[in-house]
Write a structure and sequence with these properties.
Length: 150
Amino acid sequence: MRRDREARLARVAAARGRAERADEQRRRTLAARVAVCTLVRGELARRGLDPAGAAALRLGSEAAAHLAGLGDAPAPPGSDPAPGGGGPGPAAAALFEAKILGLARRYWEEGAPDLPDNLATASPAELFAWCLLPAPARRPPLIAKTPASC
C-alpha cells in the first residue's frame, strides 16, 4: 500500500515538473516575441515607417498582454528574459539564427523587399531580418566602384 502511494506521488511530481517546464518554455517564447517585436517596432520608427502598419507586430502586443495576464512583465530590452540561464537551447537558437541571417543575406544580395509596400503582410521573421540591414541611405555598395571601372 505504501509503495503504491509513493509511486502515485512520484507520477504526480513528474507530471507537475513537466507542466512547470512547459509553462516556463511558454513564458520564454512569449518574452522572445515581445523582445523581437519591440526591436522591430523601434527600428521601423527610426527609419520613418509607421509600426502600426505592420500586422505581425500584433503578436508582440498579444504576447505582452498574455505575460501580463500571467503576472509577468516583459523583460526590459537587453536583459536576459530567462533568469538562471534557461533558454530555448542551443539547437533552437542556432535554427533561429540561421533562418534570420539567411533572410538578411538574401535581402542583402537580392535586394530587400520594399517594406512600405509589404509592411502589412510581412512576417515577424521577415521584419526582423529587414531590420538587421543597414538603412538604405547608409548601405555601402557590394562592389566598390572606382572612377576607372565606371
